[in-house]
Write a structure and sequence with these properties.
- The structure is a homodimer of 350-residue chains.
- With 350 residues, chain A is of the alpha/beta class.
- Chain A folds into two domains: 14-251, Type I PLP-dependent aspartate aminotransferase-like (Major domain) (Aspartate Aminotransferase, domain 2, 3-Layer(aba) Sandwich); 254-349, Aspartate Aminotransferase, domain 1 (Alpha-Beta Complex).
- Chain A contains nine helices and 14 strands.
- At the A-B interface, helix 1, helix 3, helix 4 and helix 6 of A face helix 1, helix 3, helix 4 and helix 6 of B.
Chain lengths: 350, 350
């Protein structure tokens, strides 16, 4: 058995792979591959509709929230968000918690004023800032709920007086939240929702129609809403994999069940790391991500040996991001507890 | 056997479906699904590299041409092209041959001046304009080589003094051309290259670095080139399907072999339609597309009967685009001659 700790694209449930594999040969007994289906056919429209409805149900979204499946990945949202929500003379507030937030801040500056209300840069991005103030005149407040590279995660929603905009690429569907409190949520699908190549955007209708600029059609959320995520040919197969993954989450008991399992996996791994003086988790205890566990070892030689031991135990994707070093182990929804047990056994015996 | 005449997403070779289906369960014997591979792994890097090299080889591209696999579909290129190539005070020339060209023109106007040098609007878009002049000061000349909806196609490259930019979404790899004469070529993959969700852009290096505007990182061709199509997580699976399809084109004899087969299929169908007074091909003979054959019937009742006959013969995707009516039959590279024979038999017996 291969243990897949990849940070994304990452492990998905085995039954999703099996169903997706079948759908490529024969989609639902039609004799056609999912890859050769016209997107404007009832067959694909029902895929899109069920994916959207299942996500709405899992996240308990109210009727003000529109769900879009878009091209471009979260990196496109870094600019599409301010293009749609921020006028040139207005200010948006941003939280700086690492690589992804920094990129979002850079893109937002092309469209208006950006106020970085807090940063954990001085702490090497090993924690989530608290006790900051978001100005009431900010058009929105943007943050990254889980920092894939640095291994920090937010476990409560900030209490501020402006609309919340969140990049949830790497922890969406992994913990319960009142998602209706957000003005806009976006997430690349390739961790907890499905396959790379599609991006989920959940936007509150009240957020739209307030910017003056002309924008390209493909960047306009309202046009995508008006066209039901089919303004152009959508990434058909990637959306199909989302549907299969969302069905799996629902069958397993929804986000609450995912959260319980994710807590168990993360607690087991962090406790094991804390108990072994050779290993050093890098993140402040209260901000430790349940999705991406980052740790180092004192000795580069030992790090190399541990890498080798992981490889020998059929564990892939444990190497840390090049900007942080050490190890990063990703524990997304689909990663079974057995893989974490295998890893903790290895840590204990090392 | 189902005959798939879908306009896109459309039929791909059966062996592509089979290999893609296997890759979802076990990619090249790794024990991992192609869907759970990290994109920054040698496994995926080799997919991207081989796809790029095979396309370069098939199209005989010189070393000035950069090949990108991008998110967003051709509709994103409608604005990404002028954003990267056209300054506000400059003019770009466009040819208006139907729905896709009109959309491209609309987006280009957001970035500079647009001169529509010719249009077949008055002819109901049933032909390709000839005998027009492209001003020498135009930054580039944009046209759509095949009009998927209207069923027209260009079989020679315009002789003008400015760089050529072409949307080849629906006929790339279907006919030989001197592709090195183009400054930029783009194509959504979901017809002749692979699966929906990825877009191929081939850009001549000489075209870049000439606009002054600041642009979002994800829209900047140069950044994508610098990052080898991995500025963010690419649409991994869609690119893999491109690789499989490109391998198939190469194995079958390349673009020349595709062209021979496409000519045979199109000639057979058009000749059969021309020989039957019930059927009316809508396009001027010299501009008839080999990819999308559009025709009507005099009598709406007969059209309905023919639709039913197609359905009974397991033919899908023959209905015309809602803007044109009648029938549209797509004959992309992967459509076997047998499907065209089945259709022509039906037409003859009708």
């Amino acid at each position: 058995m291969t243990h897949n700790f990849n940070a994304g694209p990452s492990i998905l449930p085995r039954e999703v792979f099996e169903e997706a594999s079948r759908g490529i040969l024969d989609f639902n007994g039609t004799g056609l591959s999912i890859l050769e289906l016209g997107h404007r056919t009832p067959l694909f429209e029902s895929v899109l509709e069920e994916a959207s409805q299942t996500l709405r149900e899992l996240m308990h979204l109210n009727s003000d929230k529109e769900i879009l499946f878009l091209h471009g990945g979260a990196s496109t949202q870094f600019f599409q968000v301010p293009m749609n929500l921020l006028n040139e003379e207005e200010t948006a507030a941003y939280l700086d918690c690492g690589v992804w937030g920094i990129k979002a801040i850079k893109e937002a500056k092309l469209f208006g004023y950006v106020e970085v209300v807090a940063s954990s840069k001085e702490q090497g991005y090993t924690c989530i800032p608290k006790n900051y103030t978001v100005p009431d005149n900010a058009r929105y407040f943007h943050f990254t709920t889980n920092n894939t590279i640095e291994g920090t995660e937010m476990f409560s929603i900030p209490e501020v007086n402006v609309p919340l905009v969140a990049d949830m690429s790497s922890d969406i569907l992994s913990q319960e939240m009142d998602f209706n409190r957000f003005g806009l949520i976006y997430a690349g699908a390739q961790k907890n929702i499905g396959a790379a190549g599609v991006n989920v955007v959940i936007v509150d209708k009240q957020m739209l129609g307030k910017v003056h600029r002309k924008m390209p059609s493909m960047m306009d959320y309202q046009l995508h809403i008006d066209n039901g995520s089919m303004l152009n040919t959508p990434p058909v197969f990637a959306i199909y994999v989302c549907l299969l993954t969302l069905r799996w989450v629902k069958k397993k008991g929804g986000i609450a069940a995912m959260e319980t399992l994710n807590k168990a996996k993360a607690d087991l791994l962090y406790n094991t790391l804390d108990a072994n003086p050779l290993f050093k988790p890098t993140v402040a205890k209260e901000d430790r991500s349940r999705m991406n566990v980052v740790f180092t070892m004192d000795d580069p030689e030992k790090e190399k040996q541990f890498q080798e031991a992981c490889k020998a135990a059929n564990m892939v994707g444990v190497k840390g991001h090049r900007s942080v070093g050490g190890f990063r182990v990703s524990l997304y929804n689909a990663l079974p507890l057995e893989s974490v047990i295998a890893l903790t056994d290895l840590i204990k015996s090392f």
